[in-house]
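User: Structure with adenosine monophosphate, tokens only please.
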Amino acid sequence: MKYNKKTIEDIEVSGKKVLVRCDFNVPMKNGVITSDKRIVSAMPTIKYLLDKGAAVIACSHMGKPEPSFDKYAAKQAEKGKTVTKEDWEKMMKSLSLKPVAQRISELLGGKEVKMAADVCGESATSMAAALKPGEIMLLENTRFEKGETKNDPELAKKLASMAEVFVSDAFGTVHRAHATTAGVADYLPAVSGYLIAKELGVMGKALADPDRPFVAILGGAKVSDKLNVISNLLEKVDTLIIGGGMAYTFMAAKGYGIGTSLFDSEKVDYCKEMMAKAEKNGVKLLLPVDTVVAKAFPDPIDGAIEVESVDADKIPSDKMGLDIGEKTREIFADAVKNAKTVVWNGPMGVFENPTLAKGTIAVAQALADSSATTIVGGGDSAAACEQLGFADKITHISTGGGASLEFLEGKDLPGVACLQDK
Ligand code: AMP
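Assistant:
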């Protein structure tokens, strides 16, 4: 799919009030932002708009607040917890975007970022009305409004009434049809920011017109999470590599004993279908030929663990596979070496444990060493590349795990479908 949506460069923004949906859903600990990556990723769009003399009304969700005390109390009661109104207020306060406003201000060299006390109440609407060209304000956590996740048209209309243009740039939530990701586009001219244009430009090209050989590597826990991705990629790639927990259901489908490894019993037939589809389409499907096994899942997850490596068809009945083995690491790395386009999503093993991270590290290393166009999606694989210091050797690390997977599935993303075509 060629990216053919209008961007901020295709629309007049000077002197206009522009509502920008960003993804400021950053990790926080005790009110402190622990990674500002998502805020930094949003800055090119924000800076462009401010430079052009737009009045920027930025918004985002953060976490999963529950705006109704009664519902919050009921949900906690299901978990056996009794909560007071103060507990609820504390939870809501911990999900305020105030620390984000502070960080944006720092990234803009100390420029004032006005912080609204609500999403589209008295505070936000009066602040937006008074906002001048070149100024920026931030709305409170959009999920403080219960209509947000329901894509309530009344909420979308209210939000739209504050602005003249809508810019969608929250790649991390672009696969969800919410009031601020898609709904507002019904009431305002809607275009994409730089982040979405970049994400979809790189990934769209990889899927529609890849330099070949095109190799995709999938890992992670369950086959059932990646059903459509596997099927869609089998229509596009030259080689599909499957590692991680999902590989064992494929091995079971081949008739191997997999001991106590992760197993999606309902997906065995699906795996057989996919192996047949690969053969029919002339796609090389690579599964692990050896695997690292242990008696039990590590507890704690990063604790010491005794492991051994066995061939994929010789997993002892009382052991579980937790990483790809050494021969497999070489085979997977070789496939990457010969590729011109590589897409990777999902770890090769329980990479949270240093003893079981070798497969994931080997794949990250292979991508870093490759001169191919390399695209990494999914929080875990992206984190692995960053922790290893390989991030700058990867062509593109997607900021949205779920969104990039749905894109790989070939799905329409609601937050993109609603934008104006070029
Ligand atoms: P996902 O969220 O589907 O990308 O899965 C990521 C999780 O899969 C990580 O937390 C890994 O620890 C886990 N994982 C990877 N390989 C295995 C495996 N062989 N057995 C159990 N869990 C695994």
